[in-house]
Amino acid sequence: MAVESTDSSVHPGPVMGLILGSWQSRMLLAAVEYDLFTEVAKGPATSAELAERLGLVERGTNDLLAGLVHLGLLQSTDGTFANAPVSDAFLVKGRPAYLGGYLHFCEQELNPAWNGLADSLRTGKPQNQAAVIGNPYDTLYADADATDGFLDSMDLLNAPIAQALSRFDWSGYESFVDIGGARGNFAHQVVTHNPHLKGAVFDLPPLKPAFDRHMDRLGDTAGPVTFHGGDFFKDDLPQADVLVFGHVLHNWGVEDRVALLKRAYDALKPGGSVFVYDPMAGGDQPSMHGALAGLTMLVWSRGGHEYAADDLHGWLREAGFEPETVEVDGLHDDVLVIGRKAA
Question: Which DSSP string corresponds to 21-53?
């Protein structure tokens, strides 16, 4: 049987590169699991020294270290290894910008769900069992250390959003509640820059200890930001001038989104507003960021997916709001849509 020749101008490199890229991410996750970058931060060391200190086999460790050098995460000089600047900044445990908590979340929660992508594409159902029976965050928030590590990373990644929206004109409002606001980092930023505001967080009750610890670290022991525990599908939302849904709606299906917006409408004071920010990277031709985010929601959440701002406008109108997309300086990867309730 004759085999047809392929076009000599086409090379399998891009296909093989995708597979190699997946393996490269496994190298990073393994290094973080063993706190390799934290150990290297103590001082340059050889492969043999690091293998002994971390309890690893030297042969595999040497290949791992060489690979991390090629990835730009380590530097090698005369047989010793040191952290590259990016690793020193983001991969050393205990430093302010440590991203290990998010990488642990990816390894423990997202990657297992992504392994079932083919099944989710066929069935439309998530691979995360917590999402199948309830809230996808239930398993994550069951572990205090995992919760703190995850929230450390989320606060770091979301800091530009909090900074941008803290500079928004809040002069027409006296109070707000960050729905799904975790341990209050966004609310703290907004209140700090707008001291006339009374801020609050509404989230699952298991997050209350993490909220208290974070407020204590920030020096907010007097309680300028308060915490309300509850399930936003079952419990009444606190009354306020503004309810904020930041990176919340894309976790849920359309029916759940509309239900949440209707609950928000009922909780808002007359003349109040709902603020919604998300990537809003949906549509017929989403960006790569939007496609990855959408598929993550498919495999991990209960019906979640990315959406376009026009879609949100329709859901807001259905809930009784008058919607408007608002330009905010510094809000680069997200879009803010405000829904206003009549006075």
Answer: HHHHHHHHHHHHHTTHHHHHTTS-EEHHHHHHH
